[in-house]
Amino acid sequence: MLSIAWAPCYAHPLPAGHRFPMLKYELLPEQLLREGIVTEADFFLPAPPPEAEILRTHTADYYHRLQHGQLTRQEERATGFPWSEELFVREVTILGGTIECARRALHNGIALNVAGGTHHAFADRGEGFCLLNDQAAAANYLLAHEPRIQKILIVDLDVHQGNGTAAIFQQEPRVFTFSMHGARNYPHRKEQSDLDLPLADGTDDAAYLGLLRDTLPHLVEEVAPDFVFYLAGVDVLATDKLGHLALTRAGCQQRDQFVLELCHQHQLPVVVCMGGGYSERLIDIVEAHVNTFRTAAALFS
């Protein structure tokens, strides 16, 4: 049985250009149920966490201004979203979902958030459609509340560097940040992860998977994590408008298979968040995300 965070709270007003990619959050659970990969019982409705848990990661000044719609126009533009109360509720709910996924993964081996992966959010600001950093907050939650969790590995395979996550944990030796991303892609000014693997435009299945297979097993051995967060963005696809890499859908699934098999073999609890996906055809986005759940169900159910 999988444990999946999903909150139907994505219908807040958005500019037309944002509505298309947001549809995946509704279509993905429908497809999972239609195919019988999961049942209704596998889903749980997340709730916003206590404010104190958010403030382990984000500054009080930024969080309270975000909460009350007091960001400057420049700050709002950097996020890519117009502020609304619904947007704020959505963001804290996503963050709460990833924290709860972390709690459940400790017992089930894995938990997945249909949303999440907001890795461009810094402690004191949002960027790139990310307002609050859910995986960072969940990692800090575990370090604060779970004595058995002494080392965390964040595996960020979204096509964009996890700059916010890297900055948040730059001085935190208990969290190792690994980002494998497009070298010339957003953000133009990269932060320094513990390990960055920048990829050339047009990197295909063979090159991508070869590099991942050469890197991640050694990383698991060296870091010796007690817990893994995996950001499984599907903007690595050749069909993606923003990604500039050349992975096929099959290659993307092999990526997920490799990461999750490694966690399973090492008995590492793992939380998976969906991250980005901006292909022209919605079916390419949804099907690639569904593959992540298919893979997880086959390994952990």
TrEMBL record:
Pfam family, one: Hist_deacetyl
Xref: SUPFAM superfamilies: Arginase/deacetylase
BP terms from Gene Ontology: epigenetic regulation of gene expression
GO molecular function, one term: hydrolase activity
Lineage: Bacteria, Pseudomonadati, Bacteroidota, Cytophagia, Cytophagales
Entry protein name: Histone deacetylase
UniProt xrefs under InterPro entries: HDAC_classIV (IPR044150), HDACs (IPR000286), His_deacetylse_dom (IPR023801), His_deacetylse_dom_sf (IPR037138), Ureohydrolase_dom_sf (IPR023696)
Keywords annotated in UniProt: Hydrolase
Family, similarity comment: Belongs to the histone deacetylase family.
Superkingdom of the organism of origin: Bacteria
